[in-house]
Amino acid sequence: KGLQEDFVKFLDEWKAIYDHNQPHTCPFPDKWQVQLNDMQKLIILRALRPDKVIPAVQNMIENEMGRKFIEPPPFDLGKIYKESTCITPLIFVLSPGSDPFISLNKFAEQKKKDKDMVIISLGQGQGPKAEHAIRDAMPKGSWVVLQNCHLAVSWMTTLEKICEEFAPDPKVMHRDFRLWLTSYPSKDFPVAVLQNGIKMTNEPPKGLRANLLGSFLTDPISDPKFFTGCTQDIQFRKLLFGLCFFHGVIQERRKFGPLGWNIPYEFNESDLRISVRQLTMFLDEYPEKTPFDALKYLTGECNYGGRVTDNKDRRLILTLLNDYYNEGIFNEDYKFSPSGVYFAPKYGDYEDYLEYIKSLPLIQDPEVYGFHPNADITKDQNETHSLFSTILLTQASSDSGGDQSQDEVLGKLTKTILSEIPDVFPVEEVKESFPVDYHQSMNTVLTQELVRFNGLIKVIRSSLQDIEKAIKGLILMSPQLEVCARTLFDGKVPAMWDEKSYPSLKPLGGYVADLRERLTFFQDWIDSNTTPNMFWISRFFFTQSFLTGALQNFARKYTIPIDIVQFDFFIKDDLDDVTDAETQAPEDGVYVRGLFIEGAKWDKEAQNLAESDPKVLFVDCPVLWLYPSEMSKLRVFDHYECPVYKTSARRGVLSTTGHSTNFVMMIKLPSKHEQEHWIKRGVALLTQLDD
Question: Which pTM does this prediction carry?
Answer without folding.
Answer: 0.84
